[in-house]
């Protein structure tokens, strides 16, 4: 069976890149790949987030929306640099992200080693994506990386909105680590005005 998306993902691992117009796939192939990436992300999620199906749906929605938004943002970013029409980047992003499917294998390793392995897989995926976009557009890797960093706050805001929405509907439970981080942020925000008010003018 011919699966061009898988073939292109394997070619990227061999550092073989194509023009951006090459990475165009049927919607059903992209949907299946995004579902698999969502399942992998759900498998790496903290325990206690909720029913497995709900967690999978949450992460699949997040991965899909993040991929589509990042693709549109980078289309605009590349078009500003080249002035040329940029094809859809969804296929390129999905093919470069396919290496994330190896992430569950890191769970077989000791905790410390697993964390390093998972981070390494993520960095390789980012490097493959930047390289593919750079090769396909003819733009330097630093500019591609800059665009990716500029998009990072959007991805963070998206995760916050989806998490709030999902927890509000009772589909998932916010991880304890995230709850503590939000509580600390709220406490810091509350203490700053109080500190400012207590400062007396000389």
Search tags:
mainly alpha, 71% helix, 202 residues, globular
Account of the 3D structure:
This protein has 202 residues and is mainly alpha-helical. Helices cover 71% and strands 0% of the residues. It is built from seven helices and no strands. The protein has helices at 4-13, 27-43, 52-82, 90-97, 111-137, 141-168, 176-198. Helix 3 (52-82) runs antiparallel to helix 6 (141-168) and helix 4 packs antiparallel against helix 5. The model has no long low-confidence stretch (mean pLDDT 83).
Give the gist of this structure:
This protein has 202 residues and is an all-alpha fold.
β-strand number: 0
User: What structural class do the secondary elements suggest?
Assistant: mainly alpha
Largest sheet: none
Indicate the radius of gyration in whole angstroms.
20 Å
Helix content: over 70%
Uncertain stretches of 5 or more adjacent residues = none
How large is the count of helical segments?
7
Percentage beta strand = under 5%
The helix-strand sequence is HHHHHHH
């Amino acid at each position: 069976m011919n699966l061009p998306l898988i073939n292109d993902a394997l070619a990227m691992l061999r550092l073989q890149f194509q023009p951006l117009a090459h990475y165009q796939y049927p919607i059903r192939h992209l949907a299946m790949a995004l579902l698999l990436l969502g399942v992998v992300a759900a498998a790496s999620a903290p325990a206690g987030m909720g029913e497995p199906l709900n967690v999978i749906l949450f992460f699949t929605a997040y991965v899909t929306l993040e991929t589509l938004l990042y693709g549109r943002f980078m289309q605009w970013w590349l078009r500003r640099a080249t002035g040329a029409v940029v094809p859809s980047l969804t296929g390129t992003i999905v093919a470069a992200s396919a290496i994330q499917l190896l992430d569950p294998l890191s769970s077989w390793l000791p905790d410390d080693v697993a964390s390093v392995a998972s981070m390494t897989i993520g960095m390789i995926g980012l490097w493959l994506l930047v390289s593919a976009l750079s090769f396909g557009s003819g733009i330097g890797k630093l500019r591609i990386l800059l665009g990716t960093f500029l998009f990072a706050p959007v991805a963070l805001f998206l995760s916050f909105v989806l998490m709030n929405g999902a927890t509000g509907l009772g589909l998932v439970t916010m991880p304890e680590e995230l709850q503590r981080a939000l509580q600390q942020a709220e406490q810091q925000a509350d203490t700053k005005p109080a500190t400012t008010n207590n400062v007396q003018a000389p």
